[in-house]
Design the sequence.
């Protein structure tokens, strides 16, 4: 059998994810694989906010096109980078166990900051300059700490850390999963609890995207699928779809899995963080999409609709 071509972005984290999937396929007795790095629109333009480039699709557009055109056989993504809607004919499977989905704060190496709680980093007696590329993180942090000086930052993990060390920021907020996977867990000053910052839907999950009519690929990916990650991703993507949201909307969603039960927490905030709506529900691993729809309905009933409309109109 010919080698399977895996489409991936070229960043160190993207390559780690693709290599981890390739290794899982090898352990499952699958065919040999080769990585096909693809530079996306989001990689080519790092000076502008993602919202001004068209949202998350800029990180997957060229890879999905290569998949549709059969220039690659599957694609590997961070699940949080997937837009709510995929190109027709493509399917997604969560693979590998989920890494820590929390957001993490990274401080400059010097001076050191205390790590005994968010107040030690964000407290009202100081106004640190915080770098993040996420409207979701910005809204939730400003809700809890309105005085924060939060500025947008783009680039891969290494680029952002370089900007931090150069003095452009006092603190960065990044996905803990990416830092762990790049062997940078020691740089984490604090992992933010869910009650302060609900993660992005799919954060910490690696997924493989493939052509839906490729039955052999579907069967192969089923052998490396992670049950808990798959259930969590289905619930969280259903939440996003039901709300018609994208990365330009301050939306968070994270699922906790315990046996055959799921607990999904969702949040919608105004871009400035002045208003925030939370809802949490429990469901079954047998019906994760229903749980996502249920949490979306709860958020709308609690007043999330006007916040979503305001976020969309502010683009």
Sequence:
């Amino acid at each position: 059998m010919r080698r399977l071509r895996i489409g991936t972005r070229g960043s160190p984290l993207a390559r780690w994810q693709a290599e981890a999937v390739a290794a899982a396929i090898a352990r499952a007795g699958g065919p040999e694989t080769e990585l096909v790095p693809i530079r996306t629109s989001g990689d080519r333009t790092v000076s502008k906010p993602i919202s001004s480039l068209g949202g998350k699709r800029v990180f997957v557009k060229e890879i999905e096109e290569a998949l549709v055109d059969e220039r690659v056989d599957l694609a590997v993504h961070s699940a949080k980078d997937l837009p709510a809607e995929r190109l027709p004919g493509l399917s997604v499977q969560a693979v590998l166990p989920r890494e820590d989905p929390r957001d993490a704060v990274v401080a400059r190496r010097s001076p050191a900051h205390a790590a005994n709680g968010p107040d030690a980093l964000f407290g009202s007696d100081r106004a640190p300059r915080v770098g993040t590329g996420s409207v979701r993180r910005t809204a939730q942090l400003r809700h809890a700490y309105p005085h924060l000086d939060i500025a947008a930052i783009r680039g891969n993990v290494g680029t952002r850390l370089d900007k931090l060390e150069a003095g452009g920021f006092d603190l960065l907020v990044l996905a803990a999963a990416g830092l762990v996977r790049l062997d940078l867990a020691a740089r984490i000053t604090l992992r933010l609890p869910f009650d302060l910052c609900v993660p992005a839907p799919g954060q910490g999950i690696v997924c493989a995207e493939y052509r839906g009519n490729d039955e052999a690929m579907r069967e192969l990916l089923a052998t490396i699928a992670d049950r808990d990650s798959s259930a969590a991703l289905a619930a969280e993507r259903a939440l996003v779809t039901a709300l018609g949201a994208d990365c330009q909307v301050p939306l968070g969603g994270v699922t906790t899995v315990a046996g055959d039960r799921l607990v999904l927490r969702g949040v919608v905030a105004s871009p400035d963080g002045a208003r925030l709506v939370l809802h949490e529900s429990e469901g079954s691993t047998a019906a994760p999409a229903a749980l996502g729809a249920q949490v979306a309905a709860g958020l709308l009933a609690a007043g999330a609709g006007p916040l979503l409309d305001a976020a969309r109109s502010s683009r």
